[in-house]
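Why does residue order matter? Because the sequence determines the fold. Keep that principle in mind as you read this record.
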Amino acid sequence: MEYTVLIYRAEEGGFWAEVPSLPGCYSQGETIEETMKNTQEAIEAHLLALKDEREEAPVREEIIIGRVKVEASAIA
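Structure:
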């Protein structure tokens, strides 16, 4: 199973990631590759915790990611 991961630059350096389909599932790393590896581990741990609590893991994601262009004058 695959989950969508959103990766952001951290203000203090490195990156952090969230898994929208698994609320509360976050991770971080110094590089994108490290962040992805750490996030995979976080997802696996999160799913094990759900299993231990006898909760069902999300099977299907309903995520749409889009971009909206705004005029430069709206920012200045």
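Strands lie at 6-9, 15-18, 26-29.
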